[in-house]
Amino acid sequence: MHDSSTVPEALATDLLPSEQLALDVAPLGPVEAAEALLAWDDDLVFDTLRRLNPVFVGDILPELPRERRDRILARGPSPITRQWALNQGYEEDTVGRLLEPAVAAFEPEATVAQVTERLREIVRRYLVTYIYVTDAEGRLSGVVTMRDLLFSDEHVRMDALMLREVFALHPTMPVMEAMRAVVHRHYPVYPVTDDDGRLVGTVRGRVLFEAQAIEIGAQAGRMVGVDREERISTPWLRSLVFRHPWLQLNLLTAFVAAAVVGVFQDTLDQMVVLALFLPVLAGQSGNTGCQALAVTLRGMTLGELDGGAGRRLVTKEALLGCVNGVLVGVTAGVGMYLVATSQANPAALGLAGIVALAMTASCVVSGVAGAMIPLTLKRIGADPATASSIFLTTATDVASMGLFLGMATLLLF
Questions:
Q1: In sequence order, which residues have a C-beta less than 8 Å from that of residue 116 and are 6 or more positions away?
Q2: Does the CA dihedral 126-132-133-139 come out positive or negative?
Q3: Burial track 129-142 (b if 16+ CB lie within 10 A, e otherwise)
Q4: Which residue stretches of 190-233 are H helix?
């Protein structure tokens, strides 16, 4: 174990050792970060954890050996370590996971002189931005700014000095919803209260925005089955464990699409030219669905799908799919006509029409699926981004190939 009194070459910068170590472990996954921290002494590890986003701290602590974790937590002030433990009781991606202790909370009758005297000890161990005024039950009554505290007479009480209209977040509020609530406020710190108005902690604006950035960054990976914990530095074996189950699911859904093609095997045997255009339809309809999926997930992130917006979105994507399908369908139909004519196929004109119709219909289905899949996942309580593209690919492949081969079978044979 390294001695924190000696700054190694890796940490030999103008930054404090804990600041540099925090920068080093922040890009790592929880398991890799825990392993990296094990090489340093308990005091340095605790100071490093204090500099990380509370969400990340909550992910790292369970990965540390229990004995070592207990020793590290024993090094820090109990309000911080107790808050870290309480944060684990809240759902992921909620404000409760981001909480820091509200150490500067005072009773309404406390005077400026009394608060100032007590703050002298508090600020040695904690960063204090606002003074919170709470009643005997711990309910938040008001907030006092440092400026008001500094320029007020020492005999003034907190209840005479405080701002009574206090904006507060709720610990069970999703981070995304909290972001929308604070986006125009730009306060450095926000109080967090429970259903009874009791002050349960605070969350820094920087931490809130950082958590949202992490969530947005993980969204693209979850669409294709990449776990949010996986980073560039994650060992390949652990990445395999994260990714492989989703690839097995993707293979299973691919079998469904293959089964649809198998139903029309006789049709393909009699007219091989149809096989040339299967990937054309699958690719075009898949791209249409991905566009709808991207817009839907963005709307969820920005909170634009409240009320009846979801129904309007599905209608819009169906219309866009139809118009886009007609336009690309005409081009694809011309391509089919030229290919079939070059092969002296007597059904060239009919094949061109089938391609155009199938392209239009599959683009409509894909657009609707791109909007409906994340909306459905959200309604059943699942993560809307989780492997959405895998389910979407199945829907678009089945729709495009099934419609194309089905129409060919009905109209030409």
A1: 149, 154
A2: negative
A3: ebbbbbeeeeebbb
A4: 205-222
Question: What's the token pair of residue 221?
Answer: 């990976």
Rounded to whole angstroms, how far apart are CA atoms 148 and 205?
21
Residue 409 parent element (H or E): helix 388-412
Per-residue tens of pLDDT for the chain, all 413 residues = 554 444 444 444 577 888 899 888 888 888 888 989 998 998 899 999 988 888 888 888 888 998 998 888 888 788 888 888 888 889 888 999 999 999 999 999 999 999 999 999 898 888 899 999 999 999 999 999 999 999 999 999 999 999 998 999 999 998 888 888 887 888 899 999 999 999 999 998 888 877 766 665 555 555 555 555 666 667 778 777 777 787 787 788 788 888 888 888 888 877 888 888 888 888 888 899 988 988 888 787 667 777 678 889 999 999 999 999 999 999 999 999 999 999 888 889 999 999 999 999 999 999 999 999 988 888 887 777 666 778 888 889 898 999 999 998 888 76
Distance CA(79)–CA(77), nearest Å, equals 6
DSSP assignment letter at 126: S
What span, in angstroms and rounded, lies between the C-alpha atoms of 213 and 153? 43
The token duo for 324 is 């886009």
User: Most distant CA pair in the chain: distance in Å?
Assistant: 100
Helix (H/G/I), strand (E/B), else coil: 143: strand
- The Cα-based distances of 324 to 42, 276, 288, 289, 319 in angstroms read 61, 21, 8, 12, 9
Instruction: Note whether 227 and 242 are within 8 A (CB).
Output: yes
**Nearest to 324, CA basis, from 257, 370, 372, 279:** 370
Burial of 114 (0-12, 13-18, 19+ CB in 10 A): middle
Q: Is residue 139 classed as helix, strand or coil in its secondary structure? A: strand
Q: How far apart are CA 307 and CA 369, in angstroms?
A: 20
Cross-strand partners of 203: 190
